[in-house]
Amino acid sequence: MQTNKNNFKIGLFAPADYIDKNKFQKAIYNFKSKIKNIEIIAAPNIFKKRGLFAGTVEQKLADIKYLIDANVDMLMAIKGGYGSARFIENLDYSKFLKTKISIMGYSDLTALLIAAYSQTKIPMFYGYMLVSDFYESISAEQIKLFYRAINRQTFSYSFEKCKIIKQTKIKKINGIAIAGCLSVLCGLAGTRFSKVFENNNILFLEDINEEPYKIDRMITHLKNADFFKNTKCLFVDFNNCKASEKNKGTISIKTALLEILGDYNFPIINFPHFGHRKKRKIIPIGYNAEINFAISEIKFNPNAK
């Protein structure tokens, strides 16, 4: 496999937690052994440390500017944790518009991905991070999906074996794909970046290690903030979100979703393939998503209107 562009450049940056040098070096080695025809440029401050953060807000912003000035084609986060939301209000998004740079990451990167897409309408990719996904082995499918992302190609996934939490009579659905970690997405409510939800959308929500009552609370928060008013279909991936011993007997996440979102006429599908998992699928934020329930398939098209 190769890129559609000669000398495709990926800029590595650390928007959240500080970076372990040994893990970084092993991940870089694995990345280069699997992904060919790519030039990698690492930002100068990635090994800085301030508390649990990878440097200060100013250093993170300087790193992004450095990579944009280096004419990279995509920014790829090294790892998540927490920190992206601390600088999204200070980022100069006009530079993204000039260069058409996309960003790839997941989890804490939700804040940056949604903020950048809302201000630029450039596709962003809820996908891989260097240490999180290349420190250990990576599958052939993940490599294929990575190349599809950097080449801005279509994606197609089947949900035939997935559980349908809520079914409707609608057979085909279209909307802009939006994806993110639920707990991070809640932090965008009330910000200028939440305007992304004003368009018809196919929404992908995921989280990990949260108790069902917390998922209930966060879904309720998004509903009260009108995040679901233009949602046409909801895919969820709540990994290991089980009740603790003291909270046994709480209603299930499925029941909570049906109760909280019962007033909306959109399907809800359990799609355990895009969240905090070793073999994750990439969700291209900003692509047009086309769902065909007759064949249980969702396609993502970068060029569809």
What would your notes on this structure say?
Helix 8 runs parallel beside helix 9. By secondary structure, the protein is α/β, with parallel strands linked by helices. It has helices at 21-34, 57-69, 94-99, 110-120, 130-134, 140-150, 182-185, 212-224, 253-260; strands at residues 8-13, 38-42, 74-77, 102-105, 124-126, 155-158, 163-166, 172-181, 201-208, 231-239, 268-270, 283-285, 288-292, 297-301. The protein has an eight-stranded mixed beta sheet with strand order 6-14-13-8-9-10-11-7. Strands 2-1-3-4-5-12 form a six-stranded mixed beta sheet, with helices on one face. The chain folds into two domains: 8-150, Rossmann fold (3-Layer(aba) Sandwich), CATH 3.40.50; 155-301, LD-carboxypeptidase A C-terminal domain-like (Glucose Oxidase, domain 1), CATH 3.50.30.60. 28% of the residues lie in helices and 24% in strands. It contains nine helices and 14 strands.
